[in-house]
Amino acid sequence: MENDKGKLRRDDFKTGILLILLSLGVLWEASTYPMTDSYGGVQNVWYVSPALFPLIIGLLLFILALVLVGNALVFHGWSAVWRDKNVIQTRQGRGDLRFIGVVVFFSAFVYAYIPNVDFFIASVLFLFTFISGYYLERKDVLIINIIFYTLIAGALLLITKITGEPTNHWLTDGLTTFGLFSLFLISQNARNEDETYVKKLRVALLVSILVPAILCPIFKFGLLVPLPSEGIYIELMEQIKYLFRTHS
Amino acid sequence: MDLFNDFGIFFSTLFSLMSSPSNILLLFGCSFLGIIFGALPGLTATLGVALLTTLTYGMGVNTALIALLGMYVGAIYGGSYPAILINIPGTAAAAATAMDGYPLALKGEGGRALGLTTTASFIGTVIGMIALVMAAPLITGIALQFTSYEFFLLAIFGIVISGTLTSKDLVYKGWIAGLLGLLLACIGRDRLQFFPRFTFDMPELDGGIEVVPVLIGAFGIPQIIKVLRDRIKLSQPKDFGRILPEFSTVLHNMKHIFRSAMIGIGIGTVPGVGEDIAGWVSYGTAKNTSKNPENFGKGEPAGIVSSETANNACIGGALIPLLTLGIPGSPPAAMLLGALMLHGVTPGPMIGLENPSFFIEICAILLLASLAMWINGIFLARQVVKLLQIPTAVFLPIVGVLCVIGSYALGLNIFNLYLMVPIGIVAYFLTEMKYPIAPLVIGVILGPMADENLRRALMVSDGSFMPFFERPVAILLILVIVLTVLTRLPIYQRLKSSIWTRISSKQGQQSEK
C-alpha cells in the first residue's frame, strides 16, 4: 500500500511539472487574445473577452499543479524525488510491449491506414495483426506484428506522399492486401507444430475477415454512412449489391 | 385532472411503442446487446451507449431512445453476470454484487443469485422511473427561474462535485481532470465573439471538439489497453441452475429494496457520479443496518438486492439532472446527452415547455426497457454466459474497430479519429495515475455552458460579481461549492481534528474536576 502511494506521489511529481508547463502555456496563449481592444469591429471589455475563461482555467490548473508537486515533495522530500531513478524512468517492466502494441496498432490504423486504404482491407489487416498479436500469446509474434504493421504504415505514408491526392487505391489497397497475406504466411511459419497455435491463427483470420465483412455493408448500405476511405473492396461490395438488385 | 392526463399520455405512448413489431424487436435486441456489453469485462455501459448512438443516427427520437435506454438499462444489469459467476464484475457498477453473488454461486445457487439481481434491477429501474416523472417537472419549474448566474454556478458545481466524489486518490486530482475537460471545451471559436481559441490555425478545430469522440476515446481505448496489457483473463463461469424471479426473497427484502432505490436515485442525481458508487454506498448501508452483518460477504441475498437495486435506480436518478438541467448525472447519461443532441433534442429547463409530454415518454420507454431487461434476464441468461467464454484478445480488437467507426460516423470527420487516439492514450495514463475520467468528460460537456453564462452574467452586471451574491439559488450553489472544496482541504482537516482534540481534552478536564 505504502509502495503504491509512493509510486503515485512520484507520478504526481511528474504530472504536476507537466501540468505547470501546460497551464503556463494556456495562460500565455490566452494572454494574446483580445482583452480590451477591438475584435471584428466590437470593442471588448475584460469581462466579455474570449480570454477570460481560459485565463481562469489556466490559473486554477497552475495552482492545483503546484499543490500536486508540493504534496509529492512533502511525501518524498526534495532530494529523494530527484535522487530516485523512478522519477525519470516511467513505469517499465511487465506489460510494456503489450502496451506499445495497442498504441502502435491504433495509431498506425488511424493515422496511416484509414485515410489512405480502403476501410474493409484496412480493418481486416488491423484486426488480424491485433488479434493474432495478443491471442496467440507469443512474444515473438507480437513483436513481428508490431514491426510489420508499422513498416506497411510507413510505406503507405510514403506512397501517398509521392503520388499525392487523390489516393491511388490500386497501390495502397494492393500493398495492404499483400501485407495481410505475407503476415499470415509469416505467422503460419512460426507455428512450431503447435496445434492450438494453428487453431487460434485460423480463428484470428476468420474473425478479422468476418467482422469488417459485416460492419462495412451495415454502415455503407444500411445506415448510408460513407466509409472513411473507399477503394477497390468497397467498390466490389457495391458491384455485388447492384448485381443482387438487378437479379431481384 | 393533470394526473389523469399524464397517465393517458403514459399509456398511449406505451401502447403506440408496443404496437410496432420493429420497436419491440429493437427494444429486446438492444436490451440483450446491453446485457452482453455489461457482462463482458472490458466493455461498459457508456461505451455501449456511445457505439449504439452511431447506429441510431437515421432513427426517430423515440425509436432511438428505445434502443439507447434498452442498452443502458441492460448494460447496468448485465455487469452482475460475471460478478456472480466468475467473481469479476462486468462493469464497475456490479462490483458490490460480486461480494455476495459469487459466494452464493460457489454454494451452487448461481441461478438464485441471477434471479435476485434480475428482479431487483427491474424494481430499481421502475422506482428510478417514478422518481424521474415526479421530480422532473418540479426541477424544470425551478430551473426556468434560473439566469446566467445560476447556470454558470450549476456547471461549476457539477464539475466540482463530480471531481470530489469520483477521485480515488487525492481529491484535487478530480478537480484537475475537470479543469482539463473545461480546457478541451475551450478549443474552437468562442460562442460570443467567434474568436478562435487554441486552434493553432487548424481549421478542423474551429468548430471545437466533439463530445462523442472524446467519450469513446476516454472510455474505450483505456479499457482496451488495460485489459490487454494486464492480461486479464476470465475463468470458467460457475455452473448455475434454473433462473427464477425469486419474488419471495425479493418481498422479504422490500425494506432493503426501497432504501437502496432511494440511495441510487439520490446518487444518480449528483452530476458525474454513477452507478458504481450507488452500488457500493447501498451495499455498505445494507450491511451497517443489518441485524446480521457477519453474513455479508458469504452469500447474503440482501447484499445482492441492495447493490443491484441501487445501481439500476441510479439510471432514473441520472436522467433527472440530464433532462431538466442538461447536466448528465452519470457517464452513460453524458453519452445519452450527446445522442439526444444528435437527434435535435436539447435537454434543459425549456424541454418541458417545448415538448410537455417528453418526460412521460421517456418514462414509458424506461419502463419498457426494464421489462425487456427482466424478460431477457430470466430467459436468455444462459446464452449471455456462453459469450463470457470469448477470449478478451479476440473481442477487444473488434471493440477497437467499433470505436473507430463509431467516432467517425457521427460527424463523418476523420479528424475526430485523430483526436480520439491521443485522448484515449492520455486518459489511460490519467486512469493509471488515479485521475477520474468522469469529471473530464463532464468538463467537456459543461465547459461551453460555464464559459458562455459567466460572460453573459458579467455583461448584464457590467463586470460586477455582486449579483452572484444577491440571488438565493446562486448563494446556495456558491455555499455548496465553497464548502465542498473547503472541507476537502488538508487545512480544514487539521483544523477540525485540533478543535475536536481541544473539545475532548476540555471535557476530560471538566470530568476530572
From TrEMBL, chain B:
Signal peptide: none annotated. Residues 25-442 form the DUF112 domain. It comes from the Bacteria. Keywords: Membrane, Transmembrane, Transmembrane helix. The chain crosses the membrane at residues 24-52, 83-102, 114-136, 142-163, 170-188, 358-380, 387-408, 474-492. This is Transporter. It comes from Sedimenticola selenatireducens.
